[in-house]
Specification:
The complex is a heterodimer of chains A (about 260) and B (about 280). Chain A contains 10 helices and 10 strands. Chain A has helices at about 50-55, 80-85, 105-115, 125-135, 150-165, 180-200, 210-215, 235-240, 245-250, 255-260; strands spanning about 5-15, 20-30, 35-40, 65-70, 70, 90, 170-175, 200-205, 220-225, 225-230. The two termini of chain A are about 30 Å apart. Chain B has helices spanning about 1-10, 10-35, 65-100, 105-120, 120-135, 135-150, 150-165, 165-175, 180-195, 200-215, 225-235, 240-275.
Chain lengths: ~260, ~280
């Protein structure tokens, strides 16, 4: 892989609170290779979710630059930004909160297709059924309301919604943290399989190194708004250089660490 | 359908629904049972109620049928109440949604307008508006709505401010939805239910305000209203108190019915929400 798919550099963001200013990000830089997974790990409040939201242009940074496949992402606005959004999608932590409470599965999956004018109205049901199959769900689920299906199914629908526009990159913000352990494993398998088949790159944000090491090719460790350590997953896990890195590795249950050695 | 069953399951909802149904029935039957103008003279003046079978509730000072007046008045009261409430709800939700979504200067400006309307007593506002523009039904409706739209506006804005920070709105932006589409597809439908809960209170207030305007002679003079009946009965309050009491009871029943109905509806909706 030559040029990275996405390279963010020098991203800073300060939130103005009541009378005081909180630096959420201080010159953070990350890069993601095509078809690979970058794990963004750090304790809560380290700024990883803010960075994820800045990559999605949901939050505007105070300084920095984001290059996405040769375009300056932060310079885009209006229609150009809308078109580029097709190529970068996001999956949120709480799959229930990420859908309009009135939505049905079919309605939620039709949104990306309609918004980007991808398919005619008549072709949509078939496309929605195909999307559901790609994430391992029964196409018969399409007519159900989002609040009627289980948490794991909901997160699969969220992934299907992200896949609908055929993105190059999906940002997963704590996407498996709200799921119970057995469901979590199956969602991770699904993500790995989709990456292998379709070459999608992921930014996988999590506080849990045990989950990240299972899926990420490289890891960036964040603390207090800065990237304190970056490197290929095996190096970071085997020999963490930063204090935060050592603490995160120590927090991984021993059984899991022992198994891979 | 199940919402209706839950509504009728609560005592408030059942009583309120029955009262409102009777009122609607009275309003609908008025032109059938009393096809003549209720303002026309049909008999001798001041016939007491329950004395003449052809004039069951008697006649007023000019010999007009009280029952006909009450039934025609029901239609006016309900129509004015519902129309004014609808107008207030629509205007309020639109302004509130716009303020909440736009934020910044637009929000500030719109909310100061809301403040300006809110600090003037709404009845005074209606009074001033009607006396300037002249009394007719649309003017009365507008005048009442003028004092009632600020509540829905504030509530809609608060709802929108909370909803716009939710993940599903962020998800819609990530998908590339246009701002207007986000406002009407994602935000507004979810902000409306709590605002709708205000509507019955506004209907009740509107019915009372309309009666008060008519009582002061600022209603539409060509239409029978309970307020104007009370006002005309006032002159003979000692000799024929029923002329004021009967429309007074009708007014009280209407407001009570609307209020009980809204209580029952809120209960039924709350139970549906907790179930979901």
């Amino acid at each position: 892989m030559n040029a990275p798919l996405l390279a963010a550099s020098g991203i800073s963001k300060t939130f103005a609170g009541k009378g005081r200013r909180v630096a959420a990000l201080d010159k953070a830089s990350i890069s993601v290779a095509r078809g690979q997974t970058l794990g963004l790990v750090g304790p809560s409040g380290s700024g990883k979710s803010t960075l994820a939201r800045i990559l999605m242009r949901l939050v505007e940074p105070d300084a920095g630059r984001i290059d996405f496949d040769g375009t300056d992402l932060l310079a885009l606005s209006g229609e150009a930004l809308r078109t580029t959004r097709k190529r970068i999608q996001m999956v949120f932590q709480d799959p229930l909160a990420a859908f309009n409470p009135r939505a049905t599965v079919a309605g939620a999956l039709a949104d990306p297709l309609r918004v980007h004018g991808l398919l005619g109205r008549r072709q949509r049901p078939a496309a929605i059924a195909a999307l559901l199959e790609r994430v391992g769900l029964d196409p018969g689920l399409a007519s159900r309301a989002i609040h009627e299906i289980s948490g794991g199914q909901r997160q699969r629908v969220a992934i299907a919604r992200a896949l609908a526009t055929r993105p190059d990159l999906i940002v997963l913000d704590e996407a498996v943290s709200a799921l119970d352990v057995s469901v979590r494993g199956r969602i991770l398998e699904l993500l790995v399989e989709l990456q292998r088949k379709e070459g999608i790159a992921y930014v996988f944000v999590s506080h849990d190194l045990a989950v990240v090491r299972a899926i990420a090719h490289s890891i960036a460790i964040m603390d207090a708004g800065t990237i304190v350590e970056r490197g290929p997953t095996p190096d970071v896990v085997a020999n963490p250089q930063s204090a935060t890195g050592r603490a995160l590795v120590a927090a991984v249950p021993r059984l899991v660490v022992g198994k891979s050695d | 359908m199940s919402l209706l069953r839950r509504l009728l399951g609560t005592p408030e909802g059942a009583v309120g629904t029955v009262i409102l149904c009777l009122l609607v029935l009275a309003a609908l039957l008025a032109p059938v049972l009393f096809p003549a103008d209720p303002l026309s003279i049909v008999g001798p003046a001041l016939v007491p109620p329950f004395t003449d079978p052809s004039l069951p509730l008697g006649t007023d000072r000019l010999g007009r049928d009280v029952l006909a007046g009450l039934m025609h008045g029901a239609g006016t009261s309900l129509a004015v109440g519902i129309a004014a409430a609808a107008m207030a709800m629509i205007a309020g939700s639109l302004v509130g949604t716009l303020a909440g979504l736009a934020g910044g200067l637009v929000d500030e400006a719109l909310m100061r307008v809301v403040d300006a309307f809110q600090i003037v007593p709404s009845f005074l506002l209606a009074l001033a508006f009607v006396s300037v523009t002249g009394a007719s039904l649309p003017v009365v409706i507008t005048a009442i709505a003028l004092g009632a739209w600020t509540g829905p506006a504030r509530l809609a804005r608060a709802e929108v401010l909370s909803i716009r920070e939710r993940d599903y709105v962020a998800a819609a932006r990530v998908l590339g939805m246009r701002p207007l589409e986000i406002a009407f597809r994602e935000v507004l439908p979810n902000a409306l239910p709590p605002v709708m809960a205000l509507s019955s209170v506004i209907v009740a207030i509107s019915v009372l305000t309309e009666a008060a305007l008519s009582f002061l002679g600022l209603g539409d003079p060509n239409i029978v209203t309970w307020g104007s009946m009370i006002a005309q009965g006032r002159n003979v309050l000692r000799s024929a108190p029923f002329l004021s009491i009967l429309p007074g009871i009708a007014l009280m029943l209407t407001v009570l019915g609307v209020y009980l109905f809204s209580e029952g509806l809120a209960d039924a909706l709350a139970r549906r929400r907790s179930r979901a």
